[in-house]
């Protein structure tokens, strides 16, 4: 079993950069969100498909574990569903 872990940093500022996160199937993964914009709805990130909802404190890193058991495309968004991103697992 591999001890390798994927980690992608996403900057939250007027949306998500990068907007599309690519991960390899079967390798443990986490996404580190860092909110640098005070806009209210960006203070939460959630994904029903990936099973997470997190508050994002301003200028702090919040890391979420992402299951990579299944290949596919999975959406995430801000608290008001105005800003969207995507996790692509291949």
Automatic annotation (TrEMBL):
Residues 4-89 form the EfeO-type cupredoxin-like domain. SUPFAM superfamilies: Cupredoxins. It holds the Pfam family Cupredoxin_1. InterPro entries: Cupredoxin (IPR008972), EfeO_Cupredoxin (IPR028096). It comes from the Bacteria. This is Copper-binding protein. It comes from Lentilactobacillus curieae.
């Amino acid at each position: 079993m591999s001890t390798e872990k994927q980690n992608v940093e996403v900057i939250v500022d007027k949306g998500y950069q990068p907007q599309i996160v690519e991960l390899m199937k079967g390798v443990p993964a986490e996404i580190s969100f860092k909110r640098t914009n005070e806009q209210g709805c960006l203070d939460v990130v959630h994904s029903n498909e990936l099973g997470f909802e997190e508050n994002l404190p301003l200028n702090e890193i919040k890391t979420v574990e992402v299951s990579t058991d299944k290949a596919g495309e999975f959406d995430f968004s801000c608290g008001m569903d105005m800003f969207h991103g995507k996790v692509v697992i291949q």
